[in-house]
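Our preliminary data section would be incomplete without showing what the modeling component actually yields. Below, a chain of 153 amino acids is followed by its predicted structure, encoded as tokens that our downstream tools consume directly.
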Amino acid sequence: MKKTFILVILSFVTLAESIIQAYPPFVFETVTTRDGLSSHDVRCIAQDKFGLMWFGTDEGVNRYDGTRFDIFKHTRSLQSGLNSSWINCIYEDSEGNLWIGTEKGVSIFDIETGKLEVLSDKNDAGKWLVSQRVSAFHENKDGSMWVGTRQGL
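Predicted structure:
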């Protein structure tokens, strides 16, 4: 009985060791403003379908390809760009668009075309956002987007 128990334990240890060795070790990389990040105040992180990393900061959205940053900031034009450089959340929808929640509403970035546009907080029925301070996104199975704000959905 004792030999069987020891044999089972040794088999388990050998199996566990081979499973652990099959996976590469985690590699962590630290990036800072010296590497091109727009701010040390990173408020959210997302990874898109191409593997690019997106960092939302208090000074805009930072796209990182592993070697360099591209930074998107608020511009005075409300037809394109970000409506605020204070980024609270980033979410990639099922169509590959990045939804960017800011202190002043929602901007959508089309990864395929590189087009960044401000989404109006009003529709034909009036305001659709209870607050412009957007803090979360969620997509339903049918593709409908839920927008969380500091004052509710």
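Residues 4 and 10 are 10 Å apart (CA to CA). The mean pLDDT is 85. Preliminary results of this kind motivate Aim 1 of the renewal.
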